[in-house]
Amino acid sequence: MPDAGRTLPRNDPRQYDDLAGEWWRPDGAFAMLHWLAAARAALVPPAARPRALLVDLGCGAGLLAPHLAGKGYRHVGVDLTRSALAQAATHGVGVVNGDVTAVPLADGCADVVAAGELLEHVPDWRRAVAEACRLLRPGGLLVLDTLNDTALSRLLAVRVAERLPTVPKGIHDPRLFVDARQLVAECARHGVDLRLRGIRPGVPGLLGWLLRRIRAAGRPYAGAGAAGGPAPRIVPTWSTAVLYQGRGTRGG
Fold first, then answer.
1. pLDDT tens for residues 73-127?
2. Deepest of 47, 140, 163, 208, by most Cβ within 10 A of its Cβ?
3. Considering the chain, what percentage of its residues have pLDDT values greater than 90?
4. From residue 119, how far is each of 11, 149, 216 by CA, in Å?
5. Residue whose C-alpha is closest to residue 120's, from 246, 251, 26
6. Parent domain of 50
């Protein structure tokens, strides 16, 4: 049983067991991951061939799955946390319990590799990038999003976000944030031409959501519509200084 009272180091994977009941709560601790999953899935086109494979690295509880419905992919998720994978399986994801720096899948097996909100949690993100690129077939698509290694990102994603009901305390270690230019260069080393853009939650939607969350604080959770109103949307922004999204194709 998870110990709800224990204090864990930053970025400790055991936090995901302690928060296992939060994954599919649309206004729970992982609400922002739902918004980011929708934005990530929007970068994925319909499958170009039968039985096309999408490998979802750091899939968690499978939050990407509803947004891929109807696109024609076999969705396989890789994660270290068994409690999250058990939930992903109930949402139609084929699950693999494994490390994203040593994925037990064949070279060139994937038409798409997704790595959403993953790299900033991996002590050796370069190995995770190498694995993502290895899994892609020639012409395959890599989609990802992560936090930039900047002072502004550390301020907003840790100091500010952890004081709001948007990010669980201690979920990020800012020492692991990923420099955008280094990520582009690393992908290029492995044959993937990665293009980046900054993203952020839409301000009106985020403010409305926060207001509803504050008003609901202390009340028992009442299901999917507990907070009411639409979920915030992730929108493009001119700067990659905090949160950014990448899309790239592996060359032949």
1. 999 999 999 999 999 999 999 999 999 999 999 999 999 999 999 999 999 999 9
2. 140
3. 85
4. 12, 11, 32
5. 246
6. 14-250
